[in-house]
Amino acid sequence: MGRVALPFLLFLPVIIWIILQATPDIFTDIAHPIWSEVSAQLGQLLPNYVTISPEMTWDALMVLLAYAGVFWLAARHGRDRKNASMMLKFFVIVSTCYAIYGLVVFFGGWEKVLWFDKTSYRGDLTSTFVNRNSYATYAALGLASSIVVLVNVLEHDVRKSSTWREMLRLMTDGVQKKAWLPVVGGLMTGTALMLTHSRAGFSSGMLGLFVVLIGLAVSRVLPRKLARRSAGGVVCLLVVGYWFSGDALDQRFEYAEGDGTIRFAVYEGVMQGIQLSPATGYGYGTFESGFRQFKPQNVAWATWDLAHNSYLEFSFDAGLISLIMVLATFIVIFARNVSGVVSRHRDQIYPILGTASALIVAVHSLVDFSVQIPAMGICLMFVLALGWSQSWPSKG
């Protein structure tokens, strides 16, 4: 167990509670009332569950365990420097391929996800994702990964140069010879992120970039003067990129007020449900079924299978105590990554990436559900685990 003991001990009670939610006749006093109502209607005694749907809870638990399994495997194998380097470069390659595919489909005018016709988000780049916000978060992680790999490859050239002219010359040569992959990856994922037209994904992605630059400066991987100038360059790129993105992103920001009104109405209903069952929840993974009785009138026309706020939804499903335990688990992992940025003397790019990725997803999860999409959640666990494994003091 070793280094992952504390996160494991914090996370284990959550898993146990979710299992108990889906196990019959353990807590009959706090079972969901629907089971007694159905028993009365059918005239026969049915098992009592805390969850409103045991099948949905078991299915959701399998996904949650897969997240934990990916973290454990990546943390275990990422302790070796060569493995960590290979794993991170592999993620850059994969995220770049997804971005290239998305760009080809977008500029080709094909409104498809693979061979399926798009049913939503036409005119937005979604790559192989259905939801543009989920892909925007994924692209943001890919962009941050490309940047830290680029810095890692060119770090030696930056440090050995004595003038800005020599630094630029060495960096240009380095890009051509050994850093073409992260450069291509950064360009592709950055462009794809902009063309998703996701305001939340775009904003959280830019926050992640600034965190990466701050981490590179604090850890002295980059000279602080260069990091400050890079931050200024990022601001300029944001302005230029926003201008080139056309009207779509601008329209998304203008739409924010009306969309926010609907979301806050949903949040109000979710919080009402939490207040009625704060400790037990209504069953992990059962939000759509459990939320129906709390759905406000002004949003009753829509089916809400997700709360568009992962924190509220987890609390609604599994209870406030489970939410606190999960947040504590992530805080421990996040703190370990931050510690690695400050205390490590080599390979700081991994905890820097872990810190930035955690903030990207944490902020985006306030208004969306990207972390609940397995493709996105597993990638987050992957980069967090790399940061975790490379944030401990170096040996030798």
Automatic annotation (TrEMBL):
<dbReference type="GO" id="GO:0016020">
    <property type="term" value="C:membrane"/>
</dbReference>
<feature type="domain" description="O-antigen ligase-related">
    <location>
        <begin position="187"/>
        <end position="326"/>
    </location>
</feature>
<keyword id="KW-0472">Membrane</keyword>
<feature type="transmembrane region" description="Helical">
    <location>
        <begin position="87"/>
        <end position="110"/>
    </location>
</feature>
<keyword id="KW-0812">Transmembrane</keyword>
<feature type="transmembrane region" description="Helical">
    <location>
        <begin position="349"/>
        <end position="367"/>
    </location>
</feature>
<dbReference type="Pfam" id="PF04932">
    <property type="entry name" value="Wzy_C"/>
</dbReference>
<keyword id="KW-1133">Transmembrane helix</keyword>
<feature type="transmembrane region" description="Helical">
    <location>
        <begin position="373"/>
        <end position="392"/>
    </location>
</feature>
<dbReference type="InterPro" id="IPR007016">
    <property type="entry name" value="O-antigen_ligase-rel_domated"/>
</dbReference>
<feature type="transmembrane region" description="Helical">
    <location>
        <begin position="318"/>
        <end position="337"/>
    </location>
</feature>
<feature type="transmembrane region" description="Helical">
    <location>
        <begin position="135"/>
        <end position="158"/>
    </location>
</feature>
<feature type="transmembrane region" description="Helical">
    <location>
        <begin position="179"/>
        <end position="196"/>
    </location>
</feature>
<protein>
    <recommendedName>
        <fullName>O-antigen ligase-related domain-containing protein</fullName>
    </recommendedName>
</protein>
<feature type="transmembrane region" description="Helical">
    <location>
        <begin position="226"/>
        <end position="244"/>
    </location>
</feature>
<dbReference type="InterPro" id="IPR051533">
    <property type="entry name" value="WaaL-like"/>
</dbReference>
<feature type="transmembrane region" description="Helical">
    <location>
        <begin position="202"/>
        <end position="219"/>
    </location>
</feature>
<feature type="transmembrane region" description="Helical">
    <location>
        <begin position="56"/>
        <end position="75"/>
    </location>
</feature>
